[in-house]
Amino acid sequence: MLMRTDPFREFDRLAQQMFGSATATRPAALQMDAYRQGDEFVVMFDLPGVDPETIDIDVERNVLTVRAERRSMTPEGAETIAAERPTGTYSRQLFLGDSLDTERVDASYDAGVLTLRIPVAEEAKPRKIQITGGGSGPKQISG
């Protein structure tokens, strides 16, 4: 299961709202949704306008890190009239529980949404244990 997320994400969001993203020293946090469906966890990050080539996903010791960069689309030498869409580097870390199989993370990017599917590890799934003996034959117990 997902254990926790970056504890400073909310602070970063508030600082960016008050002072603008130009004053933030940390990369901007990615907005996400996460849920469990059957034997996998699904995490979706909003990354509109991000080139998939700039997305980097790493897992190290149960810490999943997603980084992405949105570059300005304004051509060199053009006069900027409005610049409200944030650009720069975005980052998010998730601390994954031991019950997830970090070797088999699947990632896809469609319509500005990065979707990660993280399966539950085989050893963490419920299993049946067979009991022998007792005269009436084998019985199964949920384990």
Automatic annotation (TrEMBL):
Keywords: Stress response. Residues 23-134 form the SHSP domain. PANTHER family: HEAT-SHOCK PROTEIN 20 FAMILY MEMBER (PTHR11527). This is Heat shock protein. It comes from the Bacteria. The keyword Hydrolase does not apply. PROSITE patterns: SHSP. It comes from Streptomyces sparsogenes DSM 40356. Belongs to the small heat shock protein (HSP20) family. The keyword Repeat does not apply.
